[in-house]
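In response to reviewer comment 3 from the previous cycle, which asked for concrete evidence that the modeling workflow produces usable outputs, we include below a single protein chain processed end to end. The sequence was submitted unchanged, and the resulting structure tokens are shown without manual editing.
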Amino acid sequence: MMAIKSKLNERIIWTWHCQEKMRFYALSENRLKRVLRSPSRLEEGVAPRTVAIMQTTGTSKRPTEIWLMYQKRGDKMKIISAWRYPAVSPKNQPPPIPEEVWRDLENLR
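The workflow returned the following structure tokens.
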């Protein structure tokens, strides 16, 4: 993944897991930065001290959501995971994390 020099990039740490999920779900770095700048919804992340944000995408007939889970570390932001949810998720509940993301996170421990 090619790094672009900007102040936002200096503050963001991309985990290997997140980079793999970006490839799997065809999400670009710029698309995830757009989610960071203007999320549609903010929820508490399922991992300790994390935040999950979402932005709606797709059409009215086929709505999808792009989710991003991150952790603040001082003035830096560590992006832990990103995924595309193929529907509209329920509000005020933990973000819907796919099973393969759970398995990958368990393997990181």
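Helices lie at 7-11, 16-24, 29-37, 99-108. We consider this sufficient to address the reviewer's concern, and the full set will be provided in the supplementary archive.
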